[in-house]
């Protein structure tokens, strides 16, 4: 009698992962590129620069209202649900999209500063954007006056490097009793949140794991559970089911532990069929999984037949085997090892471990259990401690202690409660910021808050100027000095106070901890008032973003015929560069066509001695030479008039 194919085995007929659709945020794309025309903007009258700067100003103004203890909220519309009322700069940044394409480029330029700081420190994106805006705004003024942009940029870069070192010397380690203060300041002076985060870190340790979940009541609560975390992320972004956080989150799931490389998809058929039939999520932890075996798993996940994720086992060699055994004891599973007589093809549900929750990011995995295996875990920890006592060498002893810490560690879960979805979203973002700020303070220490540390750094600029090479580099240092006052001025403005008055009064005091307390509208010792910021969030990334923007603005102002491409797809360009137009210093010329004869050079392109390269076998392109499918030409020059288009370019697509 014929049998119907199983939901999993029937899908194992394909094995080419490149045929899968890429997720939207994926960096790589296996699809054939489509050549599309883009609009060209010439900066003859400086209008392009003005529009870019308008976009930067708009972002800084919108995010600026959220800065400080008296910052306002921002309401974000939502097509598919209630609006968001947020005070988080990173969330606002992601939502800004302007209608004018050039202004939108300005938005994306400063977005880099906030995103980079948020990635590294988890908070501080608003301060970074405000500081980058200060650098761009002040830098544009001096560039407009005709100053050398290259030397000014070097002055900014050297000043930034020196000030980062100065900030590190101003920093100090955070004390245990100050963790609540750091968290509260980041959460908008909410000491209930600060105390909860401090309590969580006290119970699991400063380096312990704290996660945030949606609660089932209207009040916040803290829960301590058994669990383990290690540095291994998902094998493919297709497994992600939480797009906002780019994480995999599976509840009440099983774990398949395999101490070998999985190469054949048929090895997984039995266990995955059972997962699909009984509808339980499953996490595959193996030494590695080859693409041929991984592709069918991804396909069934995308079809909705499976709730599944796959990760590499932590460590290598013998350490990897020990880590898998530790995970098996924690989850109540069995490691599949061929040298012990276990084969993956014959594996059943009985060998699977269990977890109440598994959270997988790009770089780490968190396993939370219900504590049912506590006695086995304690027995294992006792065995490892005996091994430590009998081990002489430092490195093996260190590895054993790491295993003990992983097995005996607890995980704190902060459950966020609220009466409405809007309130819940706002509270979650505030608690996330507070937790990230606290972890950043633990990593690199704290400095005086309220923007006062940046103000104090501005007094160090005079000494840095003495080390610079020329007057234009010193102007770059002066630009940085002015930009450092922007955050403090904005905090004061949001509190209804004149920012210039606050800045002058703070700088007149020699006490490094003296500053303006915007929450109480008074001047005092901010360290004693428990107002402090993590050092990690201050000036690490915004100077570099501002620097690159100032330099590009300078080039646009200096080279009035230079072309600026925006990211907006436009109509086909019939004539891009007229005959005889020169490509100015540091300009770039590149064309690409996906269809033969779509791009035709109706005149030779000449390369001078300063031209660096051209991606074409011939040195000159003859009249009416077609640019064939998937062939590009590109050239760069450091000298004016080194590249000259003597004819015109027609039917061109630029991508």
Number of domains: 4
Radius of gyration: 29 Å
The count of β-strands is 25
Largest sheet: 9 strands, mixed
User: Helicity, in percent?
Assistant: 40-55%
Kindly identify the CATH topology of the largest domain: GROEL, domain 1
Main structural class: alpha+beta
Can you tell me the CATH superfamily of the largest domain?
GroEL-like equatorial domain
Counting DSSP H or I runs of 4 or more residues, the number of helices is 19
- Overall form: globular
What is the CATH C level class of the largest domain, in words?
Answer: Mainly Alpha
CATH architecture title of the largest domain: Orthogonal Bundle
Q: What average pLDDT do the residues reach?
A: 74
- Runs in which pLDDT lies below 50 for 5 or more consecutive residues are 1-37, 541-655
Q: What percent of residues are in strands?
A: 15-25%
GO molecular function, one term: ATP-dependent protein folding chaperone
Pfam families: Cpn60_TCP1
InterPro entries: Chaperonin_Cpn60_CS, Cpn60/GroEL, Cpn60/GroEL/TCP-1, GroEL-like_apical_dom_sf, GROEL-like_equatorial_sf, TCP-1-like_intermed_sf
Region (Disordered): 1-24
Summarize the structure.
The protein is an alpha+beta fold and 655 residues long. The protein has 19 helices and 25 strands.
Can you characterise this structure?
The chain contains 19 helices and 25 strands. By secondary structure, the protein is an alpha+beta fold. The chain has 4 domains: 43-170 and 447-550, GroEL-like equatorial domain (GROEL, domain 1), CATH 1.10.560.10; 176-220 and 417-444, TCP-1-like chaperonin intermediate domain (GROEL, domain 2), CATH 3.30.260.10; 229-411, 3-Layer(bba) Sandwich (GroEL), CATH 3.50.7; 572-650, no CATH class. The strands form 8 sheets. Strands 4, 5, 6, 7, 8, 9, 10, 11 and 12 form a 9-stranded mixed sheet that branches. A 3-stranded antiparallel sheet has the order 18-24-21, with no helix packed on it. A 3-stranded antiparallel sheet has the order 22-20-25, with no helix packed on it. Helix 4 runs antiparallel to helix 16. The model is unreliable at 1-37 and 541-655 (pLDDT under 50). Residues 1-24 are annotated as: Disordered. GO terms for molecular function: ATP binding; ATP-dependent protein folding chaperone.
